[in-house]
Amino acid sequence: MRSILAIAFFICFVCSYNLSQADLMADSPVKFPAEGALPAKYPLDQPAKTAEPSEKDYYIFSSPERSLQQIATIQAEMPRGDFSAPPQNWTHLRRTQRILTGGGALRLMAIGDSIVADTMRSGWVAKLREAYPKADIQARVYVRGGGGCQHYKSEKRIQTYVLPYKPDLIFMGGISQQDIGSIREVIHQLRAALPEVEILLASGAFGPADLRIPEELAQAPWSGTGAYGKALKSLAAEEKCAYLDMTTPWAEYIRSTQMHPHRFYRDRIHANEYGEQILSKILLDFWKSTKARAQSSPRRPRSGERFLEEREG
């Protein structure tokens, strides 16, 4: 399923974004296959046993698919980096906060594209469970290659494939959203049936933009550092949703390693296991309690010397 999502997304993306704007391949130390992606160094050790019912080209599956042990192994090996803690605002996540800290069932559903699938495949939900042991966190992922709310708002997909799970928390992100109006429509559909559902809107990460050039990164149609990020943050405020700029800390982390961005990619668009863990670290930092944040020791970046040699051509 991972390869199907990646191929479908790449086809959709090249039709809507000018890859020549950011030729990361010009100085890339990594040789990607002509088709498909580099093989996984760490295949999922707890893969979802069965895909849940959905329509053609859409996928629903459970998360996390990595164990805490595998996550620890990947994070110990990956290049060390640093990022600024993303702003944390629990104003529109009060119910989720109560469940995490006080206990109870929390049903999470992530909706989006293959980047959202990568984010969830990082196993960050396993780390969230570890951080909040009182909560019974159950997570599902609903994605398609190149999927955005322009797809999910139609054909009664929210009513058919999301509402039956009665999610308490929705995570919507990725790099395939085509317009703010469609995101707003999906929010309204969710709230019409689930008035108490809480929603976290996130900007994108990965994709072909060269994060080493801030101006170019800001121009990417999914970037939290440009017009899209401003519009998404404004939408979140209007619709009483939480907002997370994932673009800024993701870019900061990779820049701080002083390594080429492709060291964190499995193909020209998508994260490898190290890249996925950057997304996991960002989400975990966002969900940290105020006390845990205060107690966290400052991160110190260091450059990696021996990473991903096996991925080079």
CATH architecture: 3-Layer(aba) Sandwich
Radius of gyration: 18 Å
Low-confidence stretches: 6-20, 300-313
Would you give the CATH topology? Answer: Rossmann fold
Structural class: alpha/beta
Count the beta strands: 6
Beta-strand content estimate: 5-15%
- End-to-end span in angstroms? 25 Å
Largest sheet: 6 strands, mixed
Polypeptide structure, described:
The chain is α/β, with parallel strands linked by helices. The chain has a single domain, classed as Rossmann fold, CATH 3.40.50.1110. It is built from 13 helices and six strands. A six-stranded mixed β-sheet has the order 1-3-2-4-5-6, sandwiched between helices. Strand 4, helix 8 (180-193) and strand 5 (198-202) form a beta-alpha-beta unit. Helix 4 (114-121) packs across helix 12 (273-287) and helix 5 packs parallel to helix 12. The protein is globular and about 50 Å long.
